[in-house]
Write a structure and sequence with these properties.
Elements: H1 8-12, H2 20-31, H3 34-42, H4 57-69, H5 74-83, H6 85-91, H7 103-115, H8 118-132, E1 140-149, E2 166-170, E3 173-185, E4 191-198, E5 217-220, H9 227-235, E6 239-242, H10 253-256, H11 262-265, H12 274-287, H13 291-300, H14 311-329
Parallel strand pairs: 1-5, 5-6
Antiparallel strand pairs: 1-3, 2-3, 3-4
Helix pairs in contact: 3-8, 5-7, 8-14, 13-14
């Protein structure tokens, strides 16, 4: 754990009334397992480093957390640390006797984590910790996907969109960007599995990657509806909580022969039966817990758009965001690490 002697001035400025931000940071600081996460990072730091002294790994990791919680760019994070007392206290940073990291340092640290695939490693370690504490029970999984939008404009240096992003239609609207697919534990709403794809990949394609294999219950929305999967689950004794979807009617032979317009030959789809509607209503109440992690990341912390170009960088950020969202989700149930 990062330990150092702080000046009298540093403690003096902490006597002001705590803001909402200060209370949040104090709460998160007490429940995040800093020692274990820092140890994962330090394993990859070369011991015979030459040149300018590296910034403390815990300081950099905490700074990265601030960037996610407050949706800050690297320059914005540097300014916020120098300006906000609550940030300095969270970092244990005394500006009267040491200099805060600059934006270049933040960029290098992010690239270091990306290079060693540490974002995914941190996510998996936190999931293991939550499982050890009984906050992931592996009885049932709820699956869902959310779209994160990317700039669709071609008014840039390359005169084109990001080639690793794509378009998809949701309802009557098209979206350009990527998809984050999650598998959520149905007891506490903790994300235990995560994949990131381009937006055009259908939700159901990632279903197998979101299950841990010990489920007694699998739930999801209509995008995952599959009759053969329902039969398979029932034969294995798994409760199939995926919502039923009205099947499309077969196209008329007359339409196929171009003798009648499409609107006269085939409706959009058959209607669900009363029993199917009742079933969907019952499972929808259970499935709703899968929306909570999305609400934390996109609504509470404001990550509705991609920050970087390319899937890999954004995938890394998603791993870290949902790591923090998991801890935030069960913060009241975690013991203090301090």
């Amino acid at each position: 754990m990062r330990s150092k002697q702080l000046s009298f001035f540093f403690y003096a400025v902490q006597t002001h009334t705590k803001s909402k931000s200060s209370k949040f940071l104090d709460e998160m600081d007490k429940v995040i397992p800093w020692d274990e996460l820092v140890a994962l990072i330090e394993r990859h730091i070369p011991k015979n480093h030459r040149g300018r002294k590296r910034k403390d790994a815990e300081l950099m990791l905490k700074s990265l957390c601030l960037a996610q919680w407050y949706n800050l760019s690297d320059p914005g994070l540097e300014d916020a640390i120098n300006d906000r007392i609550s940030f300095q206290k969270f970092l244990g940073l005394d500006l009267s006797c040491e200099q805060s990291p600059d934006e270049t340092t933040f960029v290098k640290f992010r690239h270091f984590l990306e290079e060693h695939n540490l974002y995914e490693e941190i996510f998996k370690r936190v999931v293991e910790i939550l499982e050890e504490k009984g906050l992931i029970v592996k009885q049932g999984t709820l699956v869902d996907a959310t779209i994160t939008r990317a700039p669709s404009s071609t008014k840039n240096r390359e005169k084109k969109r990001d080639p690793e992003m794509s378009s998809t239609k949701k309802g009557n609207q098209y979206y350009f960007g990527m998809k984050t697919h999650v598998g959520v534990d149905m007891k506490h709403g903790v994300v235990h599995s995560l994949t990131v794809t381009t937006a055009k990949v259908h939700d159901s394609k990632e279903l197998e990657n979101l299950l841990h294999g010990e489920e007694k219950y699998v739930g999801g929305d209509k995008a995952y509806c599959n009759q053969s999967l329902k039969r398979e689950h029932r034969s294995c004794g798994i409760t199939h909580g995926i919502l039923d979807k009205a099947p499309r009617q077969a196209l008329s032979i007359l339409y196929c022969r171009r003798q009648l317009p499409f609107t006269e030959c085939s409706s959009r789809g058959k209607k669900l039966s009363k029993s199917q509607k009742k079933r969907n209503s019952r499972f929808s109440k259970i499935r709703s817990i899968v929306e909570f992690p999305f609400g934390i990341v996109k609504d509470l912390w404001g990550h509705k758009k991609v920050r970087y170009k390319g899937l890999y960088k954004n995938r890394c950020q998603q791993y870290f965001l949902y790591t923090l969202a998991n801890i935030y989700r069960v913060r009241k149930l975690l013991p203090s690490t301090g």
